[in-house]
Amino acid sequence: MVLTALFAQRPGDFAGYVLVGELALNGRDIYRDAPPNISTWPPLFSLICVAIAAAARVSLVGARVAWLLLNWAALYACVWMVTRLVQPAAAPGGRVDITSAVVALPLLLCARWIVSNLEHLQVNILIFALVLGGLLLHRVRRDGSAGTVLGLAAALKVMPVLLVPYFLVRRQWRIAGCMALAVIGWSLLPIAAYGWTAFSAQHDGWREAVHAGWSVGKMNISVFAALDRHLGHGLVPFAVQGFNDLAPSGSAIVDTALVAALFLLAAVGVWLFRGPYDPASRAAVAEWSIVLLVASLFGTVAWKAYLVVLLLPMALFVATWRDTSPPEGFRVRLRLLTWLSFVLGLVAESDLVGRRLAWRLEMGSLPTLMALLVLGTLFWYRGRQRPAMATRLPGDATDLLP
Fold first, then answer.
1. Distance between CA 327 and CA 102 in Å, rounded?
2. Domain residues for 296?
3. 24 is a domain residue
């Protein structure tokens, strides 16, 4: 409650939600009439913004408090669902055993990214909760419902749409089709509120807003921004004091490097994601974690708050290295990599090392390197799985190769 009271005094991204909602309520263009880089969400998100703006007209602080409480509830749901995915015994019924290391340690490992969402009143925890809910439904083969929920998440914030090609690669035709149709259906829903003409203008405005791009300064932790800082602008890592306002260089070498990285990731993913598919296995959880992390990192923009998705792989790592079934050497290396990623993420925290050093480390792309370390660990983890996993039970770690 102390954090809620503190963060409710800050405008954060919530100010943007209120602004977009007010534009919609006043019949104005939610993209072209908004300041640059404020309204960049898909048109469906504006319907949520309308509800937020209406609540803010009654009480702005009250609306912020309600938003934060909703985020706390979503975080609880995320923790429960993540735990159900990696070790169901630690989340019996609808409860979360906070004393369990499988629950407490991932929260500690991801505390910085979770707090960033709450501090800036962002929507990422809610989107992540929708994604996890869809994956849990998929685990019990309720693919129609799963696709509908995942489609809603992707229509509100595009990144989860990467699950569609993943499911196609895994030959999960039903959920891939349901999710694709749901994305289209949810994305067209604003027509009912605005009419076709206004919706068409909104869609064009959204594309223009996304095409305008974002700064590639220190706050942008996407792989694209990191490549542009060091290859496009030629900034030597960790040698430059951090700053935010840095326009994209437009260098072709940056685009080439990003496309090459994506092709490499796709090739490795297709090679690893083969053989029988069991959504109740930890191997599947590793694959989902890879897809969500790639979706978060490899666009033209990524903020630290996006890394709330690390809660899933961190819980997976903790549950695995606390089991006795995998080989000890594997568990030791996994534990070391897990804590190393935590330390790398913590080193750039200004409250610990001071603002000047933290900004320099961020400008040197340390948070991006940390996230890429987790991604590499996930690929390594998945590569250690046996190809046949169809009979594995949730929480079973015996499918690790010695």
1. 19
2. 214-402
3. no
Could you give the angle at the alpha carbon of 196 between the alpha carbons of 38 and 23, nearest 5°?
30
Q: Residue 37 falls within a domain, yes or no?
A: no
User: What's the total number of domains in the chain?
Assistant: 1
The answer as to whether 203 is a domain residue is no
pLDDT score at 94: 63
Class of residue 283 by CB neighbours under 10 A (exposed 0-12, middle 13-18, buried 19+): buried
Task: Write phi, then psi, for 120 (nearest 5 degrees).
Answer: -100, 10
Cβ-proximal residues to 169 (8 Å cutoff; 6+ apart), any chain: 269, 270, 273
How far is it, in rounded angstroms, from Cα 128 to Cα 149? 11
Write down the pLDDT at residue 213. Answer: 84
With a CB cutoff of 8 Å and minimum separation 6, the contacts of 259 are none
DSSP letter at 42?
-
Contact 160, 154 (CB under 8 A): yes
Pick the range with the lowest mean pLDDT from 34-48, 148-162, 273-287, 387-401: 387-401
Q: What are phi and psi of 385, to 5 degrees?
A: -85, 145
Cα–Cα distance measured from residue 231 to residue 227, given in angstroms and rounded to the nearest whole number? 5
The span from the CA of 264 to the CA of 32, in Å, is: 37
Which residues neighbour 68 within 8 Å (Cβ) at sequence distance 6 or greater?
4, 7, 8, 118, 121
Beta partners for residue 364, in sequence order:
none
Bridge partner residues of 385 (DSSP): 400
Q: How many CB atoms neighbour CB 107 within 10 A?
A: 18
Q: What pLDDT is attached to residue 97?
A: 74
Reduced to 3 states (helix: H, G, I; strand: E, B; else coil), residue 38 is coil
Domain-located, residue 346: yes
Show the tokens assigned to 319.
Answer: 């549950």
Q: How many residues does the chain have?
A: 402
Q: Which residues contact 298 (CB under 8 A, 6 or more apart)?
A: 222, 223, 224, 258, 261, 262, 265
Instruction: Establish how many alpha carbons lie within 13 A of residue 245's alpha carbon, considering only the half-sphere containing its beta carbon.
Output: 1
Return the higher-pLDDT residue of 394 and 348: 348
Q: Which residue has the tokens 């912020």?
A: 64
pLDDT at 398: 39
List, as one string, the DSSP characters of 283-303.
HHHHHHHHHHHHHHHSSS---
Sequence-separated (6 or more) residues with CB below 8 Å from residue 369 = 344
| pTM metric for this prediction | 0.92
pLDDT digits (tens, 9 = 90+) for 374-383: 999 999 999 9
